[in-house]
Write a structure and sequence with these properties.
Blueprint lengths: L8 H27 L1 H34 L8 H22 L3 H4 L5 H16 L2 H86 L2 H9 L5 H52 L5 H28 L1 H6 L2 E3 H18 L3 E6 L6 E3 L2 H17 L5 E10 L6 E10 L6 H5 L9 E2 L3 H7 L4 E9 L3 E10 L1 E3 L11 E5 L3 H12 L4 E5 L2 H7 L8 E5 L7 H13 L4 E6 L14 E4 L4 H12 L3 H7 L2 E5 L3 H13 L3 E5 L2 H10 L4 E5 L7 H15 L5 E6 L4 H10 L3 E4 L4 H16 L2
Parallel strand pairs: 2-4, 10-11, 10-12, 12-13, 13-14, 15-16, 15-17, 17-18, 18-19
Antiparallel strand pairs: 1-3, 3-9, 4-5, 5-8, 6-7, 7-8
């Protein structure tokens, strides 16, 4: 019994259904009693029998009263009146007989002989018409009938009481059972709720304990808790799952750390390779001529690109760095993309032109490293998968569907035929070409933060292909330096229509007036429209001329009028000594910001200023005799120079003045040449200044010493004592490099 009264969910369920069954049984029984037709008819018949019995008694009383009157001597009652009463009484007895035939339970105890005798007396009277005899007989019958009626009433009362007692007994049994079962159900349910609350509190306490443990628990403590005897089964299951998660997390962290080290190692190895290449090139060009120096400059540019790529790769592998990179410097990004795209195109012997609309904001919110790599992958894959020989990269912006955003559009066209303008390519039948979605949603979701609606599709017309990349951005900083070339006129001449159109649009977007010439004669005819500090821009492909001699002739005419001559070339092998006859040489495709900066700087300078700039040298030499000798050599070549005897003084002068070339003694007391060079490079990087050419000078001749100078940041190393021919060759070489940017 004690075990039965313990909180048990199945027992409570059984009790609940028993209670419900009792309630339903009680309701069904009550409903049956209310709706029972037989019982209702029986009750009605019993009531009717009682009423009929009373009517018969009343009839007998009336007949007796009439007979009493009629039997008196002086009575004048008529026989017809007595006959009427006897007939009515006889009919009532007949009706009573018919009713009592259906209710034998009432008649079984008393019989109906009393009423039968009355009928016999009436029949006898109807034969004899003896009133006295009838009176006497009815007196006896009345007494008998009265006892019959009393028996009927008593029997009816007895049956009603028995029926009510049965009803009450059944209801008491049902209600008693209901109360008993409900009480037991309530007791067990209360016990169950109490036990459930106790278990709930215990589990809550367990979870609180586990929660507090998780703040300080480690891998070893988890194992200790699992092996502890006092730990409950629930806690052991939780700690077992936690231990499994710990093991998986540690395994994942181990793999992540390994991948991170591999990525960093790869990036650092690439950077180490670029440093080796740069240092080796600087040593190898020691005996090279001007063309070799220009080729070295191109190699150095390629290694710088590789180094930037390695930096981007390291940033991409560093998740923390990526998450903190919230701003995109778009023109830095597009410049890196143009350089790498150009390298990719040259590797596949394809010509490329790039145009960037100056309406694009300077800065926008998002992840620059992720966006750069995603665009680089899309563009590189498109170039690698196409056989078209010509490429146009076009970056523009437009309004977005949302008023608070802008849409950046990057279109990469690959085509076969020659076109005069970028609009001609954009107006090809692209609406007839099927679109293929090449956007990698998983990659873009992982790499892009703050950039919405990134889409990339390709189209192929057979004779031309197009990659369209678009994405929505929130602007952080708009362009503030537009119309920088306002008031300037530039005469542009070239054979390639697209190249000329790209340069013309880039210049006109900055407010310049652009005149286009198609031949050498057109150039000479249009020169009269140019003023001082205007310019002429030539491409490296002009029909019907030899570029070297033409530039020499043209420059001679322009110098007196202070009109600048610019040249755009594809590679250094095409220019030979042309750099001596132009004011600035560009390699295309060029980046828009540097392009405009160099155009503006060159246009605003005059010939005298240029000579002054190109003749400023600094000699850093602690030996006064060697300083004097080098100064005399430079004076003999008509170059002006300043001299200091300490690296610290040289650093102070560099911060206050601009020098084209610094001759730096490698070993000096105080601050030596290597330390001074490192500090100068650091200062230039912090101030974002173009690097000054630094020529190291040392009496040591070993390659190890020369390499230390190069690693410190020097561009070239010469040996002491100074030699006129070597000094002049070095100056000529690096002045040529400076002119081509």
């Amino acid at each position: 019994m004690k075990r039965f009264l313990q909180p048990n969910t199945p027992v409570i369920h059984v009790l609940f259904f028993i209670t419900l069954g009792i309630i339903l049984a009680q309701g069904a029984y009550s409903l049956r009693e209310v709706l029972s037709v037989n019982d209702n008819n029986e009750s009605k018949t019993q009531v009717l029998l009682v009423n009929k019995s009373r009517e018969i008694l009343n009839g007998i009383s009336r007949l007796n009263a009439t007979l009493e009157v009629c039997t008196q001597s002086n009575s004048n009652c008529s026989t017809a009146q007595v006959q009427l009463f006897t007939s009515e009484l006889s009919r009532e007895i007949d009706n009573f007989h018919a009713l009592i035939a259906n209710e034998k339970s009432l008649a079984s105890s008393t019989g109906i002989l009393g009423f039968d005798l009355i009928q016999l007396y009436i029949k006898k009277y109807n034969r004899t018409f003896d009133l006295n005899e009838l009176k006497q007989s009815l007196g006896v019958a009345f007494t008998n009938s009265t006892s019959i009626i009393d028996s009927l009433l008593l029997n009816h009362a007895r049956l009603s009481k028995e029926k009510q007692d049965n009803h009450l007994y059944i209801l008491l049994m049902l209600n008693g059972s209901l109360i008993l079962v409900f009480g037991l159900y309530y007791f067990l349910n209360t016990q169950l709720i109490r036990a459930a609350n106790t278990e709930k509190n215990r589990i809550s306490t367990t979870f609180k304990t586990i929660s507090n443990d998780l703040k300080t628990i480690d891998h070893g403590k988890v194992k200790e808790r699992i092996s502890n005897v006092s730990t409950s089964s629930i806690e052991k299951n939780i700690y077992a799952k936690l231990l499994s998660s710990y093991d998986q997390l540690e395994e994942q962290k181990s793999k992540t750390d390994l991948y991170q080290r591999l990525y960093n190692l790869l990036g650092y190895e690439v950077r180490g390779i670029t440093n080796t290449i740069q240092g080796g090139v600087k040593l190898l060009i020691k005996d090279a001529d001007e063309s070799g120096a220009l080729l070295a400059k191109e190699i150095m540019s390629a290694t710088n690109t590789l180094e930037n790529l390695a930096d981007n790769f390291n940033r991409l592998s560093n998740i923390d760095a990526m998450s903190h990179n919230k701003t995109i410097h778009f023109y830095h990004l597009i410049s890196e993309l143009i350089v790498l795209t150009s390298t990719k195109a040259k590797q596949q012997s394809k010509s490329i032109e790039c145009f960037v609309d100056n309406a694009i904001p300077l800065k926008m919110y998002g992840n620059q490293t992720g966006l750069f790599w995603l665009l680089l992958l899309q563009v590189s894959n498109m170039i690698s998968g196409s056989n078209q020989p010509k490429i146009l990269l076009n970056a523009t912006c437009s309004s977005s569907d949302r008023v608070d955003k802008l849409t950046i559009n990057l279109h990469l066209y690959l085509y076969l035929d020659d076109y005069d303008t970028m609009t001609n390519i954009d107006d090809l039948a692209w609406n007839q070409a099927p679109e293929k979605n090449v956007a990698n949603d998983e990659l873009s979701n992982n790499l892009l933060n703050g950039i919405n609606n990134y889409a990339a599709i390709t189209q192929d017309l057979g004779y031309a292909e197009r990659l369209c990349v678009s994405f929505d951005i929130n602007t952080s900083e708009y362009q503030t330096h537009n119309n920088r070339l306002a008031g300037k006129s530039i005469l542009l001449c070239g054979e390639s229509g697209i190249q000329v159109d790209v340069i013309a649009n880039t210049l006109s977007n900055q407010g310049a007036t652009v005149l286009v010439a198609h031949t050498a004669n057109d150039i000479f005819k249009s020169m009269k429209e140019l003023n001082a500090n205007d310019g002429i821009f030539l491409t490296d492909r002009i029909k019907g001329i030899t570029l070297d001699s033409f530039c020499k002739t043209l420059k001679a005419r322009l110098t007196k009028r202070n009109i600048k001559l610019f040249l755009s070339v594809s590679n250094s092998a095409d220019i030979d000594d042309i750099y001596n006859h132009v004011d600035y040489v560009f390699y295309h495709p060029f980046t828009p910001v540097d392009f405009i900066d160099n155009i503006l700087t060159t246009l605003n300078s005059d010939s005298g200023e240029t000579e002054e700039i190109t003749s400023r040298f600094l000699i850093v030499e602690d030996d006064k005799v060697q300083q004097f000798i080098l100064s005399k050599i430079l004076t003999g070549f008509e170059f002006q120079s300043e001299g200091v005897d300490d690296g610290a003084k040289a650093l102070a002068l560099v911060k206050e003045n601009n020098f084209d070339i610094i001759f730096m003694d490698c070993i000096m007391p105080g601050m030596g040449g290597m330390e001074a060079t490192s500090l100068i490079r650091q200062y230039e990087k912090e101030q974002r200044l173009p690097p000054t050419t630094i020529i190291g000078a040392t009496a040591l001749t070993s390659n190890k010493e020369h390499k230390q100078c190069i690693d410190a940041g020097m561009d070239y190393v010469i040996s002491k004592p100074y030699k006129n021919e070597e000094i002049y060759a070095v100056i000529k070489k690096y002045m040529a490099i400076r002119k081509v940017g």
